[in-house]
Amino acid sequence: MSEKPEKTVRLGIIGLGAQGGMYARVIAAGEVAGMTLGAIADVDPAKQELAAEKHPGVPFYDDYLAMLDSGDVDAVVTTVPHFLHAEMTITAISKGIHALTEKPAGVYTKQVEEMNSFAAEHPETTFAIMFNQRTNPVYTDLKELIDSGELGALRHTSWIITTWWRPQGYYDQSAWRATWGGEGGGVLVNQAPHQLDLWQWLCGTPKKVFAKLAFGFQREIATEDEVNALVDFGDGATGHFMTSTNDIVGTDRLEMLFDQGKVVVDASRTVTITRLTEPERDLSAKMSMQDVGKLFRGEGDPSDVYTTEVKDYDSAWGSQHVAVLTNFAAHINDGTELIADGAEGINGVRLASGMQLSAWTGREIDLVDYPAEEYLAELNARIEAEGTYPVRS
After folding, report:
1. pLDDT digits over 161-177, tens only?
2. 238 — phi, psi (to 5°)?
3. The CATH number of the domain where 183 resides is what?
4. Which of 112, 179, 344, 385 has the highest CB neighbour number within 10 Å of its CB?
5. H helix runs in the chain, sequence order
6. Rounded Cα–Cα distance for residues 61 and 133 (Å)
7. Is residue 3 domain-resident?
8. Are residues 40 and 183 in the same domain?
9. Cβ within 8 Å of residue 89, ≥6 positions away
10. CA 250, 256, 259: angle at the middle one, nearest 5?
11. Which range marks the domain in which residue 240 is found?
12. Could you tell me which residue ranges the Gfo/Idh/MocA-like oxidoreductase N-terminal domain spans (predicted)?
């Protein structure tokens, strides 16, 4: 059993795949303050040789339960298939081990609710989720602006995020990809969870959703590869979310219209903020048609009505995961506020599964009084039809 240095979190990585391997690399390189690589667990025997080569001297376990009981780790990150996130998080917390779960928090809300409830019963143990996009300055700056109230109440928002192009070969790499039993969904649970989280983080949690999904539309898969969804935020505010994996060019454009302004984000890099001099309805009430004509013809000074600010951001790619790991360690060591509390993961899961359920049933889904059991029954029917994986409970 290794000895824990003071104020250092020994992280255990469950699953040494691409993501887990990246975490191990940055921690071993000393890029994560307050954290060391405590141990690695993976059921694949080939990963033991890889771990020994890349991280000599770091304990390796072929069973994550043995790692949790070893005394080698203070915390774990669950870089494993989505269905296992909740189960492994609950097990870790039950043993007094801090848990950083990967996105999405789970596949269906019942398992995520159980995880959240269990974590709430153990407040002495840190529970966080890897929403690394919440560290992107594009979105942290927008969050601050929106929360300030400067732009007023939300009216409408639209996010087109189709930069997730995946060729057929991507799905053919592994039999579990884009299956109901192995992955639990397609683009909504694999590629787009970050946008679903950011969307509700910035705009508020939607109350209802109606969606049209295409399953195996342009790829030989069982799950959704294209999504169009309409959401209701309440108080008249609405939204549209579109994503797919079959657009080789791809678009990433977020628009948010408020009572006193508008925000447009292109490619998660360029932010255009329009600020009205007064709330739109006040401008509508006071402007004569002559004033409107001058505005549309480009006559006069538009700054009497609005101003526009354009901000360009450098890419934050590569630093975001390190920021979340560092924050996770700081919370354990010093009580620093979490970037994303693990309990918040259910919002994106409910939204994604609500979109699926709406497409399956052809009706609008209430996300406040969410029909969790109905969703699970529909999911299990599809898992049974595949005939490869066990149904879920």
Report:
1. 999 999 999 999 989 99
2. -130, 170
3. 3.30.360.10
4. 112
5. 18-28, 45-54, 64-70, 85-94, 109-120, 137-148, 168-172, 193-203, 280-286, 289-296, 320-334, 345-361, 372-386
6. 31
7. no
8. no
9. 78, 99, 101, 115, 119, 127, 342
10. 165
11. 134-313+348-386
12. 10-125
